[in-house]
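## retry 2 of 3
previous attempt timed out at serialization; input unchanged, resubmitting
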Amino acid sequence: MEMFKIMRMAALGKPEKFFKMIAWTIIEYLLRGLPFGISLLIIWELFIPLTHPGEILNISKIIIACSGLLAGLILLYFASRKAYFASFLTGYEITAAGRKKIIKHLKQLPMGFYNSRDPGDIGAYIVTDYKNIEELTTHMIPQFFGAMAMPVILVCSLFFYNWKLALAALIPIPVAYPLLKLTNWLVMTVGKHHQKITIEAASRMLEYIQGIHLIKAFNLNASKFSRLENSFRRLKNISIKMESIPGSAIAISSIILNSGIILIILYGFRMLQSNEIPLPIYILFLVMGIHIYQPFINAITFLAEINYMKLGVKRTDSLLHTPVLTSKDNCDTVTNFNLSIKNIYFKYHNTPVIDGISLEIPEKSLTAFVGPSGSGKTTLTRLISRFWDVDRGEITLGGLNIESYNPETLMSQIAIVFQDVYLFNDTIYNNIRIGREDATDEEVMAAAKLARCHEFITSLPQGYQSMVGEGGCTLSGGEKQRISIARAILKDAPIILLDEATASLDPENELSIQRAINDLIKDKTVIMIAHRLHTIQAADQIFVIDNGKVTESGKHTDLLQQNGLYKALWDEQQKQKSWKF
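## retry succeeded, writing output
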């Protein structure tokens, strides 16, 4: 039942996908035993003249047996071929479907899932865990059933010749069973620690790579990066335990099982002396006995590996049961784009971030959020786009709670331009086309022109087909930001969220991007987070957010007259203009 459960989880609820590969693997293993069976028939014929003087050796039977052996070897070739392709094609199909489902599921999870985990932990689902599942589906499970099939058939066959000696041959199996259970327990116990430390080491390695510029700047190296060094040391120690502790139990199990050959020799010899069995039967048990225990030993090894790899199956199964963002009413239509935030509260890791905010954002208006860093501005925009769900209160779009819309419908209405732009390691063309995958070449170029990036793109050797590198590392910050705006223009969503899109740019780039933003936000419902207050003077309304609350609101001139936090921020930025070095 446990094996069936593993198969069900690995195949995403369709264990029948394994049946074909298991069936062909069993046939292959049975055909592997055919040469031994035919060899025994030949030995039997050779013994007839010895045990029955006067009998003539039947050459024709031996020729027929050899012909049968040849036919069996041909069948073995075809069965092995079928088993090979059934195992690998089906196994890779299962893992490919599983990886796609994991990726799709990850996209539907709230952002809180990612913020509560190390990057290595999330990456392990696709890389480490599914590597184990791939090994499980293509090798371990079919090979385990194949290894079990051959000795079972052999033992059943031996019962027809002499049940007493066959029963004696089975004695080591129940004796070794407790060690099998112990092996599985050790694998599960040590394996959980091994899996945890492997993921931790992967996270520390990612941390080291992502911070390599700081490590180089301060002349550090891996040996001085103690978190990385310690994680690798723990991984080495647990890996040794993972191999040695269960390995000892498997070795003892092998000794116990192989002791069955001694039982067959001694007990069979006594039966031979007392004329309970003829010499050919005794030789038959000696030859067949050797091939009973080795497959069992292989099956124990397979089972130990299966028990370790099922930890990855359980992790991915647990991930797939992690609740995704769902829709309460499956609404697919947005009637208007008025946004209303009604007394919402939100905690991040039990730390209050949004504390009872209420505000109205009319359709086709420009709304700005300003305030100190960490005041909750970005979190508020993420709640509007439903990266997280609020703890209390509600956010409505067109009069409906945003939780009533299908997540895909909601996101199709929103375009986001982040402060920290991420570009995929792909062409510029494909990075812009993310905004709308069915866009034509002309539409992509039109969006690029509006975003003021067409000129620099066409100056590159490959133009729109130029690769941008991981994260867009081959482009400047201003160039990446303009590409980000181009894909937002291409998406043409009615709601635009701008998260400090010009905060870290030089004046020249800021001017180009500000012009691009002006083209982006025409006739849109726009929410802008800004630190540079001169960029939002024309906003229809400005909300000052401090410590998760709205402390001031109004137009630019109104807020200056209130003589509050906004006025203090404005005056400070005006002073900066006169700074000289």
